C-alpha cells in the first residue's frame, strides 16, 4: 500500500510539473544526474532553466511513476532506454498540450535520464514522433 501511495504522490508531482511547464509554454522537461543530485530543467525560449533539485536516489521511483502514466506502459526497468508517449490516455493533459514524447535514458553522471518533449495545439509536427 505504501508503494502505491508513493507512486500516486510522484505521479501527482509529475502532473504539477507538466502543468507548470505548459503554463510557461516550455518546449521540454528533462532530468539530469550530476553526482548525488538530480536536476529538473525546463526549456523556456530555447534556454534550459533549472526548476527543481532532488537527491539522485529519488530518480528511479520518480521515473517509474512517470512511466506508469505513459500510453501502453508495461514493466518499467530503471536504466533501460525507452521511448514512450503521453497522449492523455491514462490522465488528462494540461491546457493546450496535445501530447508528449517521453524518453527514458540509462543513468550516467552529467547525463539525462528523462526527456519529456511537449507538443501544443497548433504546433507543426516534424513527423519524428509519429504524430
**Low-pLDDT segments, ≥5 res:** 1-5, 127-131
Shape: globular
Q: How many DSSP E strands?
A: 6
Summed over residues and divided by their number, the pLDDT gives a mean of 87
Computed CA radius of gyration, to the nearest angstrom = 14 Å
Number of helices: 2
Q: Helical amount among residues, as a percent range?
A: 25-40%
Q: How big a fraction of the residues is strand? A: 35-45%
- Secondary-structure element order, N to C: HEEEHEEE
Strand arrangement within the widest β-sheet reads 3-2-1-6-5-4
Largest sheet data = 6 strands, antiparallel
Instruction: Tell me the span between the first and last alpha carbons.
Output: 37 Å
- By secondary-structure content and strand pairing, the structural class works out as alpha+beta
Question: What can you see in these coordinates?
Answer:
The chain is α+β, with helices and mostly antiparallel strands and 131 residues long. The protein has 2 helices and 6 strands, in the order H-E-E-E-H-E-E-E. The protein has a 6-stranded antiparallel β-sheet, with helices on one face. Helix 1 crosses helix 2. The longest helix has 22 residues. It starts with a helix and ends in an 11-residue tail after the last strand.
Q: Characteristics of this structure?
A:
about 25% helix; alpha+beta; about 130 residues; about 35% strand
Short description:
Helices cover 25% and strands 35% of the residues. It is of the alpha+beta class and 131 residues long.
